[in-house]
Write a structure and sequence with these properties.
This protein folds into three domains: 64 residues, DNA Methylphosphotriester Repair Domain, CATH 3.40.10; 50 residues; 53 residues, Orthogonal Bundle (Arc Repressor Mutant, subunit A). The chain is 55% helix and 7% strand. It has ten helices and four strands. It has a four-stranded mixed β-sheet. The chain is elongated.
């Protein structure tokens, strides 16, 4: 098969073959942004099974394993991060903590969250906090202060201010209104 590196980098050959780098033990999509390997170390494989049979593992940068399963690395990364955030909002005081948990930089986090939610990371984190607070206000008798702390607000005043900006009323008033409507 004849191909050039520029076309491969553009994704033209993704899904048609895999490149295995024998010196590193990794197989990649032809579009992998990693530094090109020396030609004598590269082997071409028809599919994942052939690359694995040669003792290679999937590249953690271009993620050919996800490509062949029809999943996006970014969607997988965001889904995992979303689950961890919803399980323990207190562990994520800011966007920097999100980036550390995801193992990516601030710029990549911004692109990822923006692509998945349309929001900046801090705005998305705030939305998740308020969503969790609404559920706790509706379904528990915890005090407003306890709820603010449980969903990761460092100050009750910040919680009140952000909740009122979203709902036009205090958390306590919102809770009373929700309960009277039910």
């Amino acid at each position: 098969m004849s191909w050039n590196r520029d076309e491969a980098r553009a994704g033209t050959f993704d899904g048609r073959f895999l490149m295995g780098v024998m010196s590193t033990g990794i197989y990649c999509l032809p579009s992998c942004p990693a530094r090109p390997a020396r030609a004598e170390n590269v082997r071409v494989f028809a599919d994942e099974a052939a690359a694995r049979a040669a003792g290679l593992r999937a590249c953690k940068r271009c993620r050919p394993d996800l490509f062949y399963r029809g999943r996006s690395e970014d969607a997988e990364l965001f889904g995992g991060l979303l689950g961890r955030v919803r399980a323990d909002l207190e562990a994520f005081p800011n966007a920097a903590a999100l980036a550390r948990e995801a193992g990516i930089g601030a710029s990549k986090l911004t692109r990822l969250v923006k692509a998945e939610t349309g929001l900046a990371p801090a705005a998305w984190l705030k939305r998740e906090r308020l969503r969790a607070a609404e559920a706790l206000l509706r379904g528990t008798d915890l005090s407003v202060t306890d709820i603010a702390l449980r969903v990761g607000f460092l100050a009750q005043s910040a919680f009140h201010r952000q909740f009122a900006a979203l709902h036009g009323q205090s958390p306590a008033a919102w809770r009373a209104r929700q309960r009277s409507a039910a």
